[in-house]
Design brief:
Number of helices: 9
Distance between the termini: 62 Å
CATH superfamily of the largest domain: HUPs
CATH topology of the largest domain: Rossmann fold
CATH class of the largest domain: Alpha Beta
Oligomer: single chain
Shape: globular
Radius of gyration: 22 Å
Strand content: 25-35%
Structural class: alpha/beta
Number of strands: 17
Strand order of the largest sheet: 12-15-14-13-16-17
Order of helices and strands: EHEHEHHEEEHEHHHEEEEEEEEEEH
Amino acid sequence: MSKIVVGLSGGVDSSVAAATLHRQGHEIIGLTLWLMKGKGQCCSEGMVDAVQLCDELGIPHHLVDSRDTFQQQIVDYLVAGYGDGITPLPCSQCNRSVKFGPMLDYAQRELGAEAIATGHYARITYDADLDRYQLRRAVDLTKDQSYFLYDLTQEMLAGTRFPLGNQTKVETRKMAAELGLHTAEKPESQDLCLIEEHGSMQAFLDRYLAPQPGNIVDTEGRVLGQHTGIHHYTIGQRKGIGIAAPHPLYVVALNGGRNEVVVGDRAEVHHPDCTVQRVNWVSIPPIQTPQQVAVQIRYRSPAVPATVIPLSASEDGTNSDRVKLVFDQPQFGVTPGQAAVWYDDDVVLGGGIIEPWTMQAVLS
């Protein structure tokens, strides 16, 4: 049996992950990352629940103060992005830079553990032909979190276990009840911990970004109205724009350089392609030629057919860190700053961050 450090948020998923591995006979150590102060379930309340769970299982618990790392890697990253007119996705960066990387290092270096485990709904397999670990969707597609995990490295995948990847959320709840865990009926947490602490993303951003009024313009540059800050808007937004028009208006783009919100009709929010940067080839080596894939451009959206085309390579010609995605059909609300993740069936091939549009392309 192995010594495994389980990341505990205080929720039912991580609780069952720990209990499952404990019941299998592994030596389990609970670990909670202290990310921020507040009422969010990943923080103060979560810490209490995590400690109580460890008491129930009779295992040790460690608390690691990660607040400075979270502030630098996530909070500052979010604030800068929204201020520049993009809509950053913090979760994938948090998983790589704040959670899995530091947690695996701490577990192996400080605790002598073989691996870490979490309550994420995803699966990891090993492809002997490629000599590579592969990240796969969870069995329960309604809870699948592989989209947020695309940025994990091979080292992280090799040292990580996902005990819940082959079961459904209903089965997890049932197991928690059968094991008598106090988290069995705990409500679902928000997808984004910052929303739990502040109530909404707008409330969080308003703490860091002062109101900066500017123009709302159409795609021909004509001024239609005023806004109080581009960070209050996102691509594809229809409600809350505050402009009276004979037809529905949608946010088409956010021009950080001019502090403008660009609006147009629904057709103008569809894009036939996009460029993706900071690409991580997670389950396969970097490709050298175009490949047909299924791509997901936001967490709750279905994967759609597309072609991924490598755009740049390192000096040795092996690592493509920018790609172009050409959709079989134009997609609504492709949003700079969000992740695009591409799949082959249930295997996560790779993913990256959608680059901002050139305003010349929008104001055409």
